[in-house]
Specification:
Largest sheet: 7 strands, mixed
CATH superfamily of the largest domain: Type I PLP-dependent aspartate aminotransferase-like (Major domain)
Strand content: 15-25%
CATH class of the largest domain: Alpha Beta
Radius of gyration: 21 Å
Strand order of the largest sheet: 2-8-7-6-5-3-4
Number of domains: 2
Order of helices and strands: HEHHEHEHEHEHEHEEHHHEEHEEEH
CATH architecture of the largest domain: 3-Layer(aba) Sandwich
Length: 371
């Protein structure tokens, strides 16, 4: 539709491409006929959140009449100290999702493109399409990012590459050497976004979160979130580390006051609770291999994961499909995540829970497969 056609339309018409965007689909939070189900569909921290964070949040009630500091000064200082980062290179978002959106808005013009893996996080593409940018999906090998394929997809109109490491919804990851190889193969004008939402759960020696790489690069952005390891998903706090000039540019279009006072104070307190973070990682490291072994023993495919969830593959045979398994588990009060919208119709993503949750999932899947 041309500009003249839009002007003459009988009602406001969205710009081209908006109505072609599939809305984000969150993990289910309820099941019909089930009271208080166990939610293993959104990769939330099953331990909850730090006592220190909850106390800080409650104490912030006396400040609800105040606007927060526009540049999240308290949280900026705390993260800079915790990770030994330059404060001026930090940018904050209402969850890391907002940061992805801001990066797309800053760098994509109509006709430009961004690149991501075939099963990459949906928020990347939503933001790019809203800017009338092209989204290029690159095939993965064994559900894992293929660096060579990413590099082959780059052309003169490429502006951004989004790489979740570990990835969502697959849980796979690539080594620091592979990330460096990817970066070295990119034109200096292309922004490499390293999404580290699940970084704390990957303790393999060959893995790096990218902060050290970003310190000496002009085109690397590292994003992190308080939603997973810190268990503050409800408060929507994301942060990123990037070149100072880039941060200054992106900050020009960031909405003012985007991180509220209770969220900032809870996030700062959570950063100080190393014990809670350690317990969160320990739980995942204990039960992730157990779930993998037990579910594999049922004849199902489990993708090797370095996150706080596992991706399980089901047969496409009637009576054994992922869709049927999701419904079967939900009827028993166990909510999992179908990922057909990520190009994985034969898979379920299952968050690692407490011992009783994990055992219930295995028992439920065993009953499902033996019907």
């Amino acid at each position: 539709m041309t500009a003249t056609d839009r002007f003459a339309a009988p009602r406001p018409v969205p710009k081209a491409g908006i109505l072609d965007i599939a809305p984000y689909k969150p993990g289910k939070a309820a099941a019909e006929g089930v009271v208080d189900p166990v939610k293993l569909s959104a990769n939330e921290n099953i331990l909850g959140s730090s006592d220190k964070a909850r106390s800080a949040y409650a104490e912030a009630a006396s400040q609800l009449n105040l606007y927060p500091a526009g540049r999240a000064d308290i949280l900026r200082a705390a993260i800079a100290q915790k990770y030994n980062l330059e404060p001026e290179r930090l940018l904050f978002g209402c969850g890391s999702d907002e940061i992805f959106q801001l990066l797309n808005q800053t760098f994509l013009e109509p006709g430009d493109n961004m690149i991501q893996g075939a099963h990459g996080f949906a928020a990347y593409a939503i933001g790019a399409r809203a800017c009338q940018g092209e989204v290029r999906y690159v095939a993965e090998k064994n559900f894992t990012i293929d660096v060579d394929a990413l590099l082959e997809a780059v052309d003169a109109r490429t502006r951004l590459i989004f790489l979740a490491n570990p990835a969502n919804p697959t849980g796979t990851w690539i080594s620091a050497d592979e990330v460096r190889r990817l970066h070295e193969g990119l034109p200096p004008s292309v922004v490499l976004v390293l999404d580290g939402a699940y970084a704390e759960f990957n303790t393999d020696p060959s893995y790096e979160d990218g902060l050290a790489m970003a310190r000496h690069a002009d085109n690397i952005v590292v994003t992190r979130t308080f939603s997973k390891i810190h268990g503050l998903a409800a408060l929507r706090v994301g942060w990123s580390y990037m070149p100072a000039e880039m941060a200054a540019a992106v900050d020009r279009i960031r909405l003012p006051f985007n991180i509220n006072i209770p969220a900032q104070l809870a996030a700062v307190a959570s950063l100080q609770d190393d014990d809670f973070a350690a317990r969160s990682v320990a739980l995942v490291e204990q039960w992730r291999p157990w779930l993998t072994q037990q579910i594999s023993g049922l004849g199902l495919d489990v993708v090797p994961s370095a996150a706080n969830f596992v991706l399980v593959g089901f047969p496409s045979t009637a009576g054994r499909t992922a869709v049927e398994a999701e419904a079967f588990l939900a009827a028993r009060g166990l909510l999992t995540r179908g990922v057909g919208n990520y190009g994985l119709p034969d898979h379920l993503r299952i968050t690692i829970g407490l011992e009783q949750h994990n055992r219930a999932v295995v028992d439920g899947l065993a009953e499902f497969m033996s019907r």
